[in-house]
Amino acid sequence: MSIQRVASKWTKTNAILPNPTLAPYIPETRLYTFEHLNEMLAVYGTVYIKPDNGTYGKGVMRAERLTEPLPPTEEGIIGERIWYVLRYEVDTLTFDSLEELNKVISNRIKKRPYLIQRGIDLLQHETRPFDLRVLTQMNLRKHWETTLIIGRIAAPDKVVTNHHSGGTVRFFNELVAPYLDEKEAVHLEQKLSKLGERVAWQLQKRYPRLKEIGLDVGLDQQIYPWILEVNTRPAIKVFSFLPNKSLYHKIFRYAVGYGRYSASTGKPAHSKRKT
């Protein structure tokens, strides 16, 4: 039986939200419309605009609403200037109106379904934002187990952290060390491990043939974890670089156990079905 994959970010978000213990970790996410862009920028200041079915961070944009006070008028009225910034790949565009911003975004989106998500002010490593990949797999006892938590640092001037977009992989402890002491770091690691397992369990209720997930988690300035995205076809072989080879062997052994790879060849066992 093939491993179940779920391509739609919107579908996965709506499968997780009904769980009241997980909903607080999901940043507000809506389908992209001009009205939602206006409302969410007014509330959050920064939003991410991402394709519903995208992978590797392709097509992701970040929009910001910026303000500055204007000099008082002769009547003593103090106003403010509002402008907008759009970032994608390594490009930055500035607009004087929301309508101009929306026009450029709409031209990039065309007819494809896109989501708009609250922007999280991520922790940084050497001035570059990072997030965490929580890898959770079905183990050999048919239980969900988080096998790895690794960090990903965005490439200079990029709005995403993905390796395919130039992101750099770093170890969890290295990234959180400036923000947490050793005991706090252990507690956070345990919390993220359980979070990955709970999300996997929640998704499995709707998708019973799910066997692995990669949870992308962003830490805000209060070290609060936000689930930015869930990948149902997470990278595995890229972790062969790990100095702890026994850990990688366990990750790969689990993947063989639930049928992603062939035990004899180490290659993908069969084609995967998407939902």
Automatic annotation (TrEMBL):
Highest taxon of source: Bacteria
Q: Which InterPro entries match?
A: YheC/D
State what protein this is by name.
Endospore coat-associated protein
